[in-house]
Amino acid sequence: MLRNLMIRAVGIAATVGCLTTLTAPGAAAQQGKPLKWVAMGDSYMADVMVPSWQTPAEADGCGRSRHDWEQQLADHLNTQSPGWVQLTDVTCGSATVKAGILGRQTTLLGPPFNDVPEGGYPARPPQVDSIAPDTDVVTVGIGGNDLGFGPIMTKCMELGAENQRCQPYFETGPGRPELDAGWANLREGLADTMQAIKERAPQAKVFVMGYPAVAGAPIQDQCKREFLGIPNFYKLGSMMKEDAPWFDEVEQGLNYEVESAAAKAGATYVDTYTSSIAHGACLPSGGANQPPNPDKWMYGVFDKLVLPPGVDKPAQSQYHCGMRDEVENSLPVGVPFIAGEACTLVHPNYYGAQNQMRQAHTMFEGVGLTPPNSVVGG
Fold this sequence. Notes:
The protein has 378 residues and is α/β, with parallel strands linked by helices. The chain contains eleven helices and nine strands.
């Protein structure tokens, strides 16, 4: 499944050479006008399990973090040069291209998980509607839900709980048609997204975000699925360790398609995978009564909640979820449930959001969209 890297590089380079790059009025902020930036994408862009997120009174079901990488970067740029950017952040957990980016989104799951309105949250308008002809910058990260990245992992955990590999299930077994359909859906959706952005803001500079590493090669030997005889939810749950390399190949394939779509549209791809390859979900989370591991940038299935500096832990009901209850209730009587507070299927924690911000800042800087001498920490 994993493409030959030489073919990949040559193909993308050739595609870029045949296209006109979308240019941005990068001097807008320097002329006294803030750069108008629209941020779109799914839960990896909204950094849904990074506290603090929306309060119940203002929640829209997207679970958008106040410390997602976009807001961190906007705050940084505006601190260095007041009024540098005007960010419109419409990222939303569970978003797909058809139900989130280009169409209304009705699947809205939070956090917070308490005080959900009767009947659920109102549908969210298409994120692309936030783009106007005078938009200067667009960032978008989408495709994981279109491929079915979450359901793939869920199935791997289901099979792993029965001591079965999931790679054969998806490559030669019953899951092959579903995975093939996911790849086709992903490619079509990415192309439609890039076309819609270009139609609405032809002069905007467009940045397409890749996905950070979940189980990269340097840490795959640590993807052990059991701790004290039960699934290690701080890592990849009950997924078998032998499936970690295949799961990583799927993610690399996802990023390949995202990068290819960006190249075809003349947009800038932001690689968050390479910098995070040794910081994925299989690293230890830190011992009991110890702070989270700062080298681990990706939550496991149920992991320690990573708090940004100065942020208090939210009320437990705001990050508790039914999925954790289902897992706990499925365990044999007397088996302890060793799981953390962050209810996710592998998403960036605060350290991961910081890395996303750093990689985007580098790309912004490369095309003149940052204040002079703008730097971020390593």
